[in-house]
Write a structure and sequence with these properties.
The protein is α/β, with parallel strands linked by helices. The chain contains eleven helices and ten strands. Helices cover 45% and strands 14% of the residues. Bound molecules: acetoacetyl-coenzyme A and NADPH dihydro-nicotinamide-adenine-dinucleotide phosphate (NDP). The site of acetoacetyl-coenzyme A (CAA) has 20 residues, from helix 2, helix 7 and helix 9. GO terms for molecular function: 3-hydroxybutyryl-CoA dehydrogenase activity.
């Protein structure tokens, strides 16, 4: 594998945008693809806004922001990712969606290119087996918000080779982030622990133990969490939270991972959290207002 210089990203949502942001700041060329040109434009505008906030708070020089933004370009179609040395898939947390992406993407890529997924929970071995390069397939799992969070989980599938693992480790180090290695089991380390806590907070709401505000205040002030669990669920995206719980429930066959019916109801309503304008809080006004 030659040196990683260009990163391709599939999915210009909150995670794809964040990965593009930190990769461009670390000096990589970034190509970003999503299903519609409008989505890519919105994604790039969000990155620009986030970098501008970093400039305003003195974390970044204006020239550094400009140079980094100049390294990011839109890939109008998947073929636009052909020149990437490492492609990171950061599309919706849905196995069928990811499989379809890999089927379309693999024939377009350089045979030597590494293919990574930012999945929060899905088996790396299973995803890898649907590609033409299980040896060069790996989980590179970033945390949200990517520019702020120091951790990246690296997850090897059964076939991932050492060169792919070492190159991925080098990429994470270049981003100035800390890598931990997780075995390929449902939801890896962070989400195996975090999501049952969030799901339990939703049960606590469902059973009327506390209101949205009481639960979040209790965990912020009582356990020193930076965000309450319901605020964090909205921040992650309730569709993503539900998918992770389903993967845990199916993959470990234990009823303790049963997704809370209230979480299912919010997702069915399209109340997906911050990105949809409404979840456990309504974000459409000046301040978030609890929806229960
Ligand atoms: C689901 C999965 O698969 C895995 C996951 O990611 S699970 C989720 C993991 N993430 C968490 O648990 C996040 C928990 N929350 C937090 O740590 C904090 O609330 C937070 C860092 C998100 C925000 O911190 P805060 O102090 O409440 O707010 P705020 O002052 O607005 O932000 C802190 C800094 O982060 C920066 N920031 C926040 N979001 C940012 C973004 N997207 N891009 C760049 N900078 C960002 C802010 O600009 C701010 O910088 P300054 O200190 O220079 O002003
Ligand atoms: N949210 C979080 O806190 C974290 C999420 N992750 C993981 O990162 C991935 C992305 O999550 P996140 O960014 O939050 O989700 P978002 O919903 O913000 O973004 C997903 C993006 O992928 C796009 N997309 C859907 N299908 C395709 C496709 N076939 N080709 C290209 N793009 C597509 C979506 O478009 P459209 O909206 O039109 O469907 C959307 O723009 C998931 O696997 C998630 O589990 C990992 C760590 C943390």
């Amino acid at each position: 594998m030659s040196k990683i210089e260009t990163i391709g990203i599939v999915g210009a949502g909150q995670m794809g945008g964040g990965i593009a942001h930190v990769s461009a700041l670390a000096g990589y060329k970034v190509l970003i693809y999503d299903v519609g040109a409008e989505r890519i434009e919105t994604g790039i505008a969000t990155i620009s806004g986030n970098m501008a906030r970093q400039v305003a708070s003195g974390k970044l020089e204006e020239q550094v922001r400009k140079d980094a933004m100049a390294r990011i370009s839109a890939a109008p179609d998947m073929a636009g990712l052909a020149g990437a040395d490492l492609v990171i898939e950061a599309a919706t947390e849905d196995e069928a969606v990811k499989r379809k992406i890999f089927a379309q993407l693999c024939p377009l890529l350089n045979p030597e290119a590494i293919l990574a997924t930012n999945t929060s929970s899905i088996s790396i071995t299973r995803l890898a087996s649907t590609t033409d390069r299980p040896e060069r397939f790996i989980g590179i799992h970033f945390m949200n918000p990517v520019p702020v969070m120091k951790l990246v989980e690296l997850v090897r599938g059964i076939a991932t080779d050492d060169r792919t693992f070492e190159a991925s480790k080098g990429y994470v180090a270049q981003l100035d982030k800390t890598a931990t290695v997780s075995e390929d089991f449902p939801a890896f380390i962070v989400n195996r622990i975090l999501l049952p806590m969030i799901n339990e907070a939703i049960y606590t709401l469902y059973e009327g133990v506390g209101s949205v505000e009481a639960i979040d205040t209790a965990m912020k002030l009582g356990a020193n969490h930076p965000m309450g669990p319901l605020q964090l669920a909205d921040f992650i995206g309730l569709d993503t939270c539900l998918s992770i719980m389903q993967v845990l429930h199916d993959g470990l066959s234990d009823s303790k991972y049963r997704p809370c019916p209230l979480l299912v109801k919010y997702v069915e309503a399209g109340w997906l959290g911050r990105k949809a304008g409404r979840g456990f809080y309504d974000y459409r006004g000046e301040h978030p207002v609890p929806t229960r």
